[in-house]
From TrEMBL:
The chain crosses the membrane at residues 35-56, 113-136. It comes from Plasmodiophora brassicae. The keyword S-adenosyl-L-methionine does not apply. This is Large conductance mechanosensitive channel protein. Gene3D superfamilies: Large-conductance mechanosensitive channel, MscL, domain 1 (1.10.1200.120). It comes from the Eukaryota. It is a multi-pass membrane protein. The lineage of its organism: Eukaryota, Sar, Rhizaria, Endomyxa, Phytomyxea. Pfam families: MscL (PF01741). GO terms for cellular component: membrane. NCBIfam families: mscL. It is found in: Membrane. One of its GO terms (molecular function) is mechanosensitive monoatomic ion channel activity. Its main location: membrane.
């Protein structure tokens, strides 16, 4: 005899209420902005990484490769150990790998370092621009605060010179002079 999965009365209303609470908490968590900002940043970072990879491999590497005798920077390597049978001279990295040679792929490493430096420079520049913009915004807000004050009755920002709040129409005291 098979036992039913749910025995007795099930509190469906309680389950639905808990599910609604959980859904509401999740919505509040997502709406806070940090999660959305993180998701946008991750997506933008991935796209930015693709752009930098293309810049390095399609623009910078070919220019650097002009100074090198062979095909490209990524193809630069040194043979550390020759294969047991055969030659120790290879024209490409793929040929050396296919023959079983152990190689030091210094060209790929240099290309990765260039990519890292470009990303670091771009991130540093963005942080400097963001910091400068936030400083300007902070100074602007401070200058507005010197011109404005808060209504003690309705907590709305009003002019320092106001004698009556334009929002709640309460009579206001004269503002204290700041030195």
């Amino acid at each position: 005899m098979v036992k039913p999965f749910l025995q007795g009365d099930v509190d469906v209303d309680g389950f639905i209420e808990k599910a609604d609470t959980l859904a509401s908490e999740f919505k509040d968590f997502i709406a806070r902005g940090n999660v959305v900002d993180l998701a946008v940043g991750t997506i933008m970072g991935g796209a930015f990484g693709a752009i930098v990879a293309s810049l390095v491999s399609d623009v910078i590497t070919p220019v650097v490769s002009l100074a090198l005798p062979s095909s490209g920077l990524k193809e630069q390597f040194s043979v550390l150990r020759c294969p047991k049978a055969g030659t120790c001279t290879f024209s490409t990295l793929a040929a050396a790998s296919d023959a079983g040679a152990i190689t030091l792929n210094w060209g790929a490493f240099v290309q990765s370092v260039i990519s890292f430096l470009i990303i670091s420079l771009c991130v540093f520049s963005m942080i400097k621009i963001y910091t400068a913009a936030m400083t300007v915004d902070r100074k602007r807000r401070e200058s507005i605060r010197q011109v404005a004050r808060m209504c003690p009755f309705c907590d709305v920002e009003i002019s320092r010179k106001a004698k009556r709040c334009p929002h709640c129409t309460s009579a206001l005291e004269e503002p204290k002079k700041t030195k």
